[in-house]
């Protein structure tokens, strides 16, 4: 100790106080922490120890380090690395984790230790950029640097997974790892939403079965859960209902993008999505770079066999036979059924006819 101030014991007033390094047991919020080599002043008269000046900081930092070690918490260096990796400010971290002001500063100084719950949140932020994005939206934290880092990470991940996914043969019956992405909006929102990506183990059959349980079937959700991206195109010619194309720069693991003519009636759009999903499930190894659909017919006649197959599957996706028969037992009003299943009257007409629930053959238009 180079301090020239007269040092005396705060307990007994003795000036017989000397610096030493020895094991000390500290009590921190009801917890006993052993520090094997603690630097402190010890009173020769009464034996009490104290941590004047810088010793107090070192003592608190050592306690923090010990607790982090014992509890397997992130180190001070980890905390700083995770925060700066995303270009986030300390106050922003506090807002994201929901702790009081100045908390993060203390954590990074090492004198205060995050709770195990906070530690878990910080680890998730480190491991999962999409979780960070979700937190940023929830807590109203906007940081362009962080958004850029998140976007890059997601893009990298999508590329890796879609390469692997596309190398797998179709149709896929085994659970495969896919990335699910969505393009939900247009304009500036697209950039942020584009990489709303999550990883999941998806069994195509099981995913379809799960979605068919709820009427009206969320066909867009189904496509996304299968790793197919969807874009609504409001400038598409009215001569086309939509398309499914192989993406050169995949935004989903499926590596396919369904474009829907946003100017068609929402019910027709649903049919188009279902039809394209059907192409993906049944024909994705046969459609080359994709298929652009002329305005889709809902019937099963004529046409290319691939188109007939896709229409049949689309009808079953949107109007699952079991659910439709159940609903038909309540009402045979085709208009009411079309409303319940969110399909066009035309589609419902063909479906009822196809299942033999009506003898009325819909008019061809
Ligand atoms: Zn003393
Ligand atoms: Zn088609």
UniProtKB/TrEMBL annotation:
InterPro entries: Cro/C1-type_HTH (IPR001387), IrrE_HExxH (IPR010359), Lambda_DNA-bd_dom_sf (IPR010982), MqsA (IPR022452), MqsA/HigA-2 (IPR032758), Rad_response_metalloprotease (IPR052345). One of its GO terms (molecular function) is DNA binding. Residues 79-132 form the HTH cro/C1-type domain. CDD domains: HTH_XRE (cd00093). SUPFAM superfamilies: lambda repressor-like DNA-binding domains. Belongs to the short-chain fatty acyl-CoA assimilation regulator (ScfR) family. This is Putative zinc finger/helix-turn-helix YgiT family protein.
């Amino acid at each position: 100790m180079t301090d020239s101030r007269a040092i005396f014991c705060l307990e007994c007033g003795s000036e017989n106080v000397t610096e030493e390094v020895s094991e000390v047991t500290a009590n921190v919020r009801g917890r006993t922490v052993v520090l094997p080599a603690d630097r402190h002043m010890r009173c020769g008269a009464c034996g009490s120890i104290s941590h004047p000046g810088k010793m107090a900081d070192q003592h608190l930092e050592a306690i923090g380090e010990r607790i982090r070690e014992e509890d397997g918490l992130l180190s001070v260096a980890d905390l700083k690395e995770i925060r700066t990796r995303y270009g986030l400010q300390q106050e922003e971290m506090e807002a994201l984790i929901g702790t009081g002001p100045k908390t993060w500063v203390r954590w990074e100084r090492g004198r205060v230790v995050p709770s195990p719950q906070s530690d878990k949140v910080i680890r998730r932020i480190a491991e999962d950029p999409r979780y960070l994005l979700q937190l940023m939206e929830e807590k109203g934290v906007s940081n362009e640097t962080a958004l850029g880092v998140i976007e890059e990470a997601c893009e990298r991940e999508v590329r890796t997974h879609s390469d692997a996914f596309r190398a797998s043969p179709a149709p896929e019956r085994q659970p495969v790892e896919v990335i699910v992405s969505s393009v939900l909006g247009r304009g500036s929102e697209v950039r942020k939403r584009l990489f709303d990506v999550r990883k999941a183990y998806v069994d195509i059959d099981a995913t379809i079965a799960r979605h068919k349980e709820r009427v009206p079937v969320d066909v867009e959700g189904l496509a996304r859960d299968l790793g197919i991206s969807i874009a609504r195109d409001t400038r598409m010619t009215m001569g086309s209902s939509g398309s499914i194309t192989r993406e050169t720069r995949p935004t989903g693991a499926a590596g396919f993008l369904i474009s829907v003519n946003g100017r068609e009636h929402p019910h027709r759009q649903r049919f188009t999505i279902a039809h394209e999903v059907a192409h993906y499930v049944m024909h994705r190894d046969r459609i080359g770079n994709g298929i652009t659909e002329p305005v889709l017919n809902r019937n099963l006649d004529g046409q290319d066999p691939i188109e007939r197959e896709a229409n049949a599957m689309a009808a079953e996706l949107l109007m699952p036979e079991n659910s439709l028969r159940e609903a038909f037992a309540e009402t045979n009003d085709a208009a009411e059924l079309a409303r319940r299943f969110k399909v066009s009257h035309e589609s419902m007409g063909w479906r009822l006819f196809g299942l033999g629930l009506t003898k009325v053959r819909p008019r061809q238009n």
